[in-house]
TrEMBL record, chains A, B:
Keyword terms of this UniProt record: Lyase, Metal-binding
EC main group: lyase
Record organism: Peribacillus butanolivorans
Family: Belongs to the HMG-CoA lyase family.
EC number annotated for this UniProt entry: 4.1.3.4
GO BP terms in the entry: ketone body biosynthetic process; L-leucine catabolic process
UniProt name for this protein: Hydroxymethylglutaryl-CoA lyase
Transmembrane portions of the chain: none
PANTHER family hit by this protein: HYDROXYMETHYLGLUTARYL-COA LYASE (PTHR42738)
SUPFAM superfamilies in UniProt: Aldolase (SSF51569)
Pfam families (alphabetical): HMGL-like
Phylogenetic placement of the source organism: Bacteria, Bacillati, Bacillota, Bacilli, Bacillales
InterPro entries named among the record's database cross-references: Aldolase_TIM, HMGL, PYR_CT
Domain of life assignment: Bacteria
Amino acid sequence: MNWPEKVTIKEVGPRDGLQNEKVIIPTQRKIDWINQLSDTGLSYIEATSFVHPKWIPQLSDAVEVAKGINRNPDITYAALVPNQRGLESALEADIDEISVFMSSSETHNLKNINKTISDTFPVLKEVIDSAARSRKSVRGYVSTVFGCPYEGEVSIEQVFKVCDQLFEYGINELSLGDTIGVASPRQVALFLEQAVKRYDIDRIALHFHDTRGMALANVLKSLDYGIKTFDSALGGLGGCPYAPGASGNVATDDLIHMLHNMGIHTGIDQGKLIGAASMMQRFLEKPLPSHQMAVYNAQ
Amino acid sequence: MNWPEKVTIKEVGPRDGLQNEKVIIPTQRKIDWINQLSDTGLSYIEATSFVHPKWIPQLSDAVEVAKGINRNPDITYAALVPNQRGLESALEADIDEISVFMSSSETHNLKNINKTISDTFPVLKEVIDSAARSRKSVRGYVSTVFGCPYEGEVSIEQVFKVCDQLFEYGINELSLGDTIGVASPRQVALFLEQAVKRYDIDRIALHFHDTRGMALANVLKSLDYGIKTFDSALGGLGGCPYAPGASGNVATDDLIHMLHNMGIHTGIDQGKLIGAASMMQRFLEKPLPSHQMAVYNAQ
């Protein structure tokens, strides 16, 4: 049980969660919710996305949200940025950290970004360089690390090729995404066995989706390898675009609950987190799918 | 990754699952369902319970179910038995293996069995002795191993006291139950660290509930300790009596999915298992809560 004593949770609910919710949440409610999230002890919140509204209508109010929230100085507020134009909006809204994204599998990258992997690199390089000039750190999301909805398994070499390039461009942290929730603990172990030797472990985050129910088992296996940063979405908000009704991001409240019960600190207040999840349940007028919320809603 | 190559799943859906479902399933449908379960590759099915119908109305047709199902000679059909009278009914129905049960915490035992722990021992001893005379093996369920809804944490010493006694009486296998789904992987590790030294690992099964979402992570940790037998209920049937709406037994289909994706054999056909879960969904006229069924239902 050589687990880290402290783990950092990066809350992606306002972005990765909401972008998969059909019901459009009014801007002021998003602001209220992020403000409530800011009061839970979270140190990192991905607040929105500057991807063109045509692709993610839910987050078309990115500038208003970014400018409207109260900035807690202890929290990093991040936003997803696809290209130079998105970066300019993010900089204008004074986002603390920029997230860029691409896939490790060619077909998913093509379908998601409309570019080949090699054509995506220069676009991201430009964003990363510009962000650096504006003294903003950049986080790199790599999707389909453990499997692609179109290609199936992705080779570790292929994943490393993409990750290596992003690190070379100067990203601050790499978020390794199990986009469709297919990773098993064995696959995570085989991957991390190599990854922790290749990269600085302090710059690696794991981003699990719970589609098949294995997310917390995969977190546990990652902890065995010393991983200290995980992405999650409060309440399991969002679901899976590839299987409507199935789970999306691992739920922050489920993740925190397990970590705390393992004696691992996160700095986050579970009660306040449940309060923030309740607020979103009221906005969406439906129960959120996490296990903690099921127990809470039953009480 | 020193995991077992093969794991045995003990399907408890027809008993632990159904006993927590409010809608009464007609006897013939239970029989049809168990017959379908018998065709999935499962080697062990807990088919019903001979607890007095006053306590579990859903399973008041235990004799009819036990006599009505087709017996696959490769499968052990078990049933829960609370006392000598229940044993007689089970023997009359020619059940293959008898399950006895008690709690490791005094208050849960008192509320569940209406006896103190010390008063429960002679009742179970009588059942185990009688079963032996009829050449039936006995499985012992110990509840609240990782926490009690009334007393909180239960000491390992207290759990061992109960387990030791049951082994001394001659049970064939011990099923260690996380009755309310509170165990964390750390707690499982601390417990198994001692348990695998104290008992024959081939005689220990883990019985996790997924109330807080940690069941598969706890299975993973148990595999690290070489545990090779797990109880589960297909589709996550049943839910939690202490928190209606929350998860009950870990879902067989979720468990199998993870094990197979880790390269661990179970002998069970995932497709047939999903077929059997679909049948129960039709009987209950509601979706079953497992992750695999959520994905299946979305397709």
